[in-house]
Amino acid sequence: MAQPIVRGETVRSLAEPPASMEPGPGGAERVVARFDDLLRRRADLEAVARAAAELSGLPARLVDRTRRVVIRVEPDGERRDSPDRPEPDWLAVRVLDGAATLWLESPARGRDLDTLVLERAGAAAAVLIRHRPVTGPTHTPTAPLLETAIAAGTPLEARLAALRALGLNPEGRLRVLAQPHGKVLVQPEGDPVPVRGRAGVGPAVPAHRLPESAARALTALRLTAEGTTADPGPRVVRAEDLGGLEMLAAAVAPGTTTPDAAVLTAAAEEAPWLLPTLVAVANAPNQRAAAQELFVHHSTLRVRLQRAEVLLGWSLRDAAGMLRLRLALAVRLLGRQV
Fold it and tell me: In angstroms, what CA-CA distances link 19 with 79, 116, 230?
């Protein structure tokens, strides 16, 4: 749902249109008709931002970090990027509980027209965003901006400008999220992880340390799993939770393995229940908790572990055997290509 904001205060809902409105070609009827037409045609988000700019006579900026959309349109309808970050007193509407934001680049002017444009644009954007895949393509060249923002060799001023163009505050703490196939996302500290599927989360850092966050996010990604029976494990891993596993990741290159990890993989092919059972046992505080996670009786789990010891060739009933298991499980993940 769109949440219009004027100087930080929520304005009237869509069900309560402004009582007064400027006459002429930018009046209420034209605003409503324009956005209704965009929805009928299932137009893209750039068309929504363009309509907001043309109808209000102000530059409009739409940022959806989840889908990597950064769009800025001038009142003449032309796309023009700007290195300036949004100002706190600009007219704005939050879309889908803050998943995206649309700004009109001006403080409140006391015009009901601006309010209606924001409301209708925010509602249209919400509908269109719901029909967009999270990782779908956009009409904005955000990939070069993201690369500039996180690359180790980027000069600081260029990094800050790229972050502003992405709709981020370079003065706040930011973190990098890494996804499979080289996809990355930069977000403010404290924001929920907005991606679906596997993601490695780097630590929140000042802007000049974003390359560090990106590198650690990629390491965390290597220790994620699909969360399925065939590939059990966490789908989202935070670098700050890894501890010494980051050192292990540096020593295990993709495409390599260890004897224990190879034995684990071969045993899993023979017994499909093996991997989810061992992952649950390795991560749970005790066997009873692991049995509850697996939805099996604790006596069934004991039988499985006895069979697992035969397949693996080492004991799982002491600290040394469990450490060996945890390392094999980690190496199994680290040896894959991300």
Answer: 32, 11, 60
Contact 163, 187 (CB under 8 A): no
Q: Is the pTM of this model over 0.85?
A: no
Q: Could you report the per-residue pLDDT of 224-280, keeping only the tens digit for each? A: 999 999 999 999 999 999 999 999 999 999 889 999 999 999 999 999 999 999 999
